[in-house]
Every structure is written in C-alpha cells, then in structure tokens.
C-alpha cells in the first residue's frame, strides 16, 4: 500500500512514518498543502492521511482539490480538532474517515485498512485465491490452511497482486509498492520475488504477461 502523509508536525510525522513502514506500507511525507497537491498530481496513492491544521492553507483545501479532480483516493483526516462541526465539515467535504489526535496506532491502521478496502469494493479484510489466503491485518499468508512464511518484500509483492486480482500489475508498480521507487533496483529483482512466491504458493498462482507485468491467475474472491 502506497500512502501520502500530510502532516506539519515533524516529530509526529516521523513517528507515523516509522509505524507505517513497520506495517509494511510505503509512505511519502509532505508538510504543507501546496506540496500535498503537487504529490497528488505526480503520484498515485492508495490513501491519504491528512492533517487539517497545515501552514498556509487548510487541509480542507487539499481535500477539495482531490475531490475537485474527481479523484476517489481514500482520505483519512487525522487532526486535533475534535468539535462535531469540524468532523461534519471534513466528512461533508469528501473525507472517508476522521480520527482525532491523540490516537492509538492500531486504531489508525484499522481505519486505514477499512477505507482502502471499501474503495476497492471489498467487504472482507482477507484476500483469497484458490487456497491462498492473505490477511493484511495480521500480515499472514497461508496455503490450504498451512501458514507460509514470507519475507517483507515477498509479502508486499503478493499483497499488491492480490489486491488487483484480474488486472495486470507492471514491474514498475511492484517496485513502487515494494521499495517506494522504480528504476533504481536491479531489473530482475521483482522477477526473483515472483519466482519465490511461485515456489512457496504454487507455480500457477502468478502469471507473467509478457511485455506488461504480472497478474494473479484467473478469477478469485477478495
């Protein structure tokens, strides 16, 4: 999952980024509305964590910018503003959820997973395909009921593919999800992770679409 954190409190942002990365997510951080808007134009994110009290311009201006572009990226407001009127204003402006500081990290990540899941049209938090089950919350993968240990990079690769069942995912998209960048690692790195996933979870799980990328084989349920 690729996230954008818009937060002007440097210490809080550093702590949040560290926690996000520990959960296996990729995160970019900006501290003001102008840079947030630029990042949202230049990159695709799975969700935005948005503070309201930003220097120069309110976080609501970022939210209005996102929705004004007909961008459906999930936005989770994280703010110290706890008045009912503030929560209503944020949700009416297009936010998918609203959480008041200080908050417990586990609640933040649960809410984050929920808004992303809803945006993908999924009801269950668990992803499954032909006996392979991936639980993003527990960071667990099993095959036919047996737990399969994966490295952090293997897990992120599989998560990206299973979240997009039925669609081709390019090598560049996988590099972005796994490393936070593309074009800066060896060209066969993603192929190595795909090979390892096939070895652990079945040769038929992931199909190579030549000249395009990879996809989960056939249909499945999420």
UniProtKB/TrEMBL annotation:
The modification 4-aspartylphosphate is found at residue 51. This is Response regulator transcription factor. Keywords: Cytoplasm, DNA-binding, Phosphoprotein, Transcription, Transcription regulation, Two-component regulatory system. Residues 2-116 form the Response regulatory domain. It comes from Lysobacter stagni. InterPro entries: CheY-like_superfamily, OmpR/PhoB-type_DNA-bd, Sig_transdc_resp-reg_receiver, WalR-like, WH-like_DNA-bd_sf. Residues 124-218 form the OmpR/PhoB-type domain. It is found in: Cytoplasm.
